[in-house]
């Protein structure tokens, strides 16, 4: 199935949010990192500005910066309207209100867009759709991150998530997934079955993090090789 830009709702998060969502330590950010489903997040750009490198993979990166910017502009008003209508489902502590949220998200996405073409030339942004096999060698990365992609879209099903995680674990020693809720702020129906399957081959842990915006969304899933 072709990946169509008009089906995407771009929504970018920042380095600060990634650090909190994934409990990233000073040592973690020096590792070889692959970030899956990054979309228009500024994490990669901000890491590069600090002299660190991240490889981001997302099918969004097949499109030009101009096309992505146009899609951001098309969807931003609708997304902000939905946030206002569902404000009670979120925790307004670090982010005070919908207006501040919009400012943070647009700043992150503009930072991404400014970096995108140069990042593509450096192969920091890779066009790829999971769960297909990635173009990377076994054990190419020390740490994998999945922000608001795996588990969040539980409608993709158990098979998709199992195959995607298995492929990421082929190229990574460790994978961190945040949040472990779906779009309705509920535990995915297949979550227990997924953990049972992964537990046959990997070490599994659930860890509380210093970040909660979606109510109840303050935990990440950690998957490591080692069994």
TrEMBL record:
This is SAM-dependent methyltransferase. It comes from Mucilaginibacter gossypiicola.
């Amino acid at each position: 199935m072709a990946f169509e830009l008009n089906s995407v709702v771009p929504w970018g998060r920042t380095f600060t949010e990634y650090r909190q969502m994934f409990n990233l330590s000073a040592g973690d950010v020096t590792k070889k990192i692959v970030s899956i489903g990054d979309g228009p997040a500024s994490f990669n750009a901000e890491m590069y500005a600090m002299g660190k490198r991240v490889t981001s993979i997302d099918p969004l990166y097949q499109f030009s910066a101009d096309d992505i910017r146009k899609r951001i502009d098309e969807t931003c008003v609708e997304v902000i309207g939905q946030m206002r209508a569902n404000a009670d489902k979120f925790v307004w502590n670090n982010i005070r209100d919908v207006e501040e949220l919009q400012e943070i998200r647009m700043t992150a996405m503009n930072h991404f867009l400014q970096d995108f073409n140069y990042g593509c030339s450096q192969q920091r942004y890779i066009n790829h759709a999971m769960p297909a096999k990635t173009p990377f060698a076994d054990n190419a990365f020390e740490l994998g991150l999945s922000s608001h992609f795996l588990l969040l879209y539980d409608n993709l099903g158990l098979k998709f998530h199992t195959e995607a995680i298995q492929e990421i674990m082929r190229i990574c020693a460790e994978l961190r997934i945040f949040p472990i809720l779906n779009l309705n702020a509920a535990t995915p129906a297949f979550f227990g079955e997924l953990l049972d399957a992964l537990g046959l081959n990997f070490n599994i842990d659930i860890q509380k993090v210093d970040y909660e915006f979606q109510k109840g969304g303050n935990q990440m899933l950690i998957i490591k090789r080692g069994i």
